[in-house]
Write a structure and sequence with these properties.
Length: 349
């Protein structure tokens, strides 16, 4: 797909951004794949941004999201889920962990590092509780890849943090399904059993020399928290390694935005709010802020259902107030920073 730089004033609705747009303060206001609207044109002009790069010969957004690159992302995701399913099923049969499969899966995910728009679009579409055991591992690996890329880690380290995401819950193969899939609230005893999955996972990997210490650490430490309230050891910030901090954020984000057998998913904006309140105490602030700042613009263009029964589309997300997107509803604009009684109930569709 070719692209061209044009004046903002010459943009038309349905033009698609080909390169991230950064404001004079260095904050990303639009990401590649965002669709130009009259509202966005107005905001870009107010920011003093005169030119943007857009794709040539693109009829509409549907053509963009259904292109070959998106379909390739979809296929790679499905193949990765199948790889992880075979590995986990093998462990359940008492077989040894097939590390070559993990390496293969990690390479597939790393190959999509530069296609963040399609990765995030696809992850947003697969929020079902079906086969959650397998898809959660893959989702966490994808989000870990995105975070690693946004932190500008070298590919070798991104590959390892992807492996950590794929393997972070591997110890749950030793936890009874009746506890893992319980619909009601866990008892204290059941929760204590669940918490053992970090140590059990590390035990599975401990004798495998091919797996790096960083990956093994993330498996056992991804539930540790910066303020010492995590498990299994109650470690504080100083002792928690980088991979564990990355996987911790990816794990919580995916878990909260996915349907589970015992609860419905939350919106990304609900999770952003949690991250900005409770999260600042328990997660690494630099990684957390990078994640929120980088992923939030990708929800521009998403369809939403509001708590007042109206449907709309996100047309802009202020980079300094990601909790208050601007919603277009039948050519009118709703600013959630002003309309405090209006909330996003669901996103997508």
């Amino acid at each position: 797909m070719s692209s061209i730089e044009i004046m903002v004033s010459d943009c038309t609705e349905s033009d698609i951004i080909a390169e991230d747009v950064v404001n004079p303060n260095g904050l990303t206001v639009l990401v590649r794949g965002a669709v130009i609207t009259d509202y966005i044109k107005k905001r870009l002009t107010e920011m003093g941004i005169e030119k943007v790069t857009v794709y040539n010969s693109m009829d509409n957004y549907d053509n963009f999201v259904n292109n070959t690159s998106y379909q390739d992302c979809k296929q790679q995701y499905k193949e990765t889920v199948l790889l992880i399913k075979n590995i986990i099923d093998g462990l359940l049969r008492g077989e040894q962990l097939q590390y070559n499969g993990i390496v293969n899966a990690a390479n597939k995910i790393l190959g999509l590092k530069n296609d963040k728009r399609n990765v995030i679009n696809y992850l947003n579409k697969i929020r079902s509780a079906d086969e959650y055991t397998y898809t959660h591992c893959v989702d966490v690996a994808f989000y870990s890849m995105l975070i690693g890329a946004w932190l500008n880690l070298p590919d070798e380290e991104i590959n390892e943090v992807i492996q950590a995401g794929l393997l972070h819950d591997i110890g749950k193969v030793k936890i009874p399904n009746k506890i893992l899939n319980k619909k009601g609230k866990l008892t204290t005893e059941e929760f204590n059993i669940i918490k053992k999955h970090t140590i059990l996972g590390h035990e599975i990997l401990s004798k495998m020399d091919d797996i790096s210490d960083g990956v093994k650490n993330a498996v056992i430490f991804h539930h540790e928290r910066m303020d010492g309230t995590g498990y299994p050891f109650g470690m504080s910030a100083t002792f928690i390694d980088l991979y564990s901090k990355i996987v911790a954020i990816a794990d919580v984000f995916d878990a909260m935005t996915s349907d589970r057998v015992y609860r419905k998913r939350k919106t990304p904006f609900d999770v952003f709010e949690m991250f900005k309140t409770v999260g600042v105490r328990i997660f690494d602030s630099t990684i957390l802020n990078t994640f929120i700042k980088k992923i939030s613009p990708y929800y521009i263009g998403a369809n939403v259902m509001l708590n007042n029964g109206e449907r709309g589309r996100i047309v802009y997300i202020p980079p300094r107030d990601v909790l208050s997107p601007i919603i277009e509803i039948q050519s009118d604009y709703l600013d959630l920073s002003i309309q405090n009684n209006v909330e996003i109930l669901s996103i997508g569709g």
